[in-house]
Amino acid sequence: MQVRFLPFLVLLFALCPFISKSQKTAQPEYYQLSIYKYSKTEQEAVLKQYFETALVPALHRQQINRVGVFEKIANDTAAVKELYVLIPLKNPGQQELVRQRLQKDAPYLSASQPFREANYKTPAYDRMETIWLKAFALMPALKIPALTGQKQERVYELRSYQSPTEQLFRSKVKMFNEGGEIAIFKNLNFNAVFYGEVIAGCHMPNLMYLTTHENKEDRDAHWKSFGSDPAWKRLNTMEEYKNNVSHIDISFLRPLACSDI
After folding, report:
1. End-to-end alpha-carbon separation of the chain, Å?
2. CB-based contacts of 47: which residues, under 8 Å, 6+ apart?
3. Do residues 115 and 45 make contact, with C-beta atoms less than 8 angstroms apart?
4. Contact in structure between 72 and 251 (CB atoms under 8 Å)
5. For the residues 103-109, what does the mean pLDDT come to?
6. Are 82 and 75 contacting, i.e. CB atoms less than 8 angstroms apart?
7. 77 lies in which domain range?
8. DSSP classification of residue 64
9. pLDDT tens by residue, 216-255
10. What is the CATH number of the domain that holds 121?
């Protein structure tokens, strides 16, 4: 019995490195981030109704259950207002499949009629921008934040880091992954939803990430701890990561009631 069992053990130990590697190498998700820009309160009502009663339920019927729907906190005073929709996908090709299924989804077509068939004089929105992202290797899947407070009190922070060149952009991506910047955010409980490199957008080369906080005071406290963190101070002074960010855009968002995130 022992002689027969030995070859099996040898084979098992030989396969262990490959099994371990396959478990660690998860395929990165892709994210479709759409930004709807509008200027009238009537448009806001149509958009929010569309997201709540048509789009999000239809995506759920397609087993896409981590849909983010956010409004810009600055909408309260801004002339041009923005609503954001974040959809995680297994691959870029899934987007076309999602679109085709929406066109055959009777409840969606009925609920989305005010949005889709708005009069040309009163469109549902002024412009819409779509950004495509690929998740970072060290956070390959979108994560729902572990927050307990009311959604209307939360502060979600969407950041975009532009780089001056492709090489310096790769340096910044490496800084997040192998360099340990993601690990620092995780250790400090920033409740990140995603980190990703933009593969189609108007500010490339750039990366984007979304962190979440219970409220503004919680957000400020987290960034204060980040700035004084010893690991960040070491990382930020490393020569290989110098000058890899040329511009930063920050948008403060809050989730709508229909948001899964």
Report:
1. 55
2. 36, 38, 83, 115, 124, 125
3. no
4. yes
5. 99
6. yes
7. 30-255
8. -
9. 999 999 999 999 999 999 999 999 999 999 999 999 999 9
10. 3.30.70.100
